[in-house]
Amino acid sequence: MSKARKLGRPTDHRRAMLRAMVTYLLENGKIETTVTRAMEVGPIAEKMITLGKKNTLYARRRAMAYITKEEVVHKLFTEIAPGYEDRNGGYTRIVKIGPRRGDAAEMAIIELV
Fold first, then answer.
1. Rounded CA gap, 84 and 81, in Å?
2. Pick the CATH number of 12-112 from 2.60.40.10, 3.30.1480.10, 3.90.1030.10, 3.40.50.300
3. CA angle 82-85-87, nearest 5°?
4. Nearest-angstrom CA–CA distance, 68 and 63
5. Residues 39, 111 contacting (CB under 8 angstroms)
6. Burial class of residue 1 (count of CB atoms within 10 Å of its CB; 0-12, 13-18, 19+)
7. 48 and 22 in contact (C-beta within 8 Å)?
8. If you write DSSP's letter for every residue of 37-99 in order, what string do you get?
9. Phi, psi (5° rounding) for residue 93?
C-alpha cells in the first residue's frame, strides 16, 4: 500500500491545493509544477476523467464535489471525457523538465494525453 505524500502542508491546505491543481489541469490541459505534486495530481485527475466517462448524474455530482469550478465540470463531461471513450486509463503524462532556478526543485509538466 502506497502512502500519500504530505507535500509539507497541513491536511486541509494540501487537499485545497490538489483540488485547485486538478481543476486547473482540466481547464487548461497542462500545468508546470514539481515532480512530487504532479505525481499526486495525476491519479486524481484520472479519476475525474473516469467519472466523466460514466456521464451519470451521480458521477457529475461526485465531480462537482471535488472540482472547484462548475464550468470545468461541464467541460470535463462534454469535451474531455468523450475524447477518451476508447482509452482505459493513462489520460495524463508527466514530463520532467529539470531543476527550478530558485531552489533546484525537480520540475515537471503534467498534461492530458
1. 5
2. 3.90.1030.10
3. 135
4. 9
5. no
6. exposed
7. yes
8. HHHHHHHHHHHHHHHHHH--HHHHHHHHHH-S-HHHHHHIIIIIGGGGTT--S--EEEEEEEE
9. -135, 135
Q: What are phi and psi of 30, to 5 degrees?
A: -160, 155
- Global pTM reads 0.92
Domain boundaries, the chain: 12-112
Amino acid identity for residue 100 in this structure: R
Please identify which residue in the block is written with the cell numbers 473516469.
50
pLDDT in tens, 75-98: 999 999 999 999 999 999 999 999
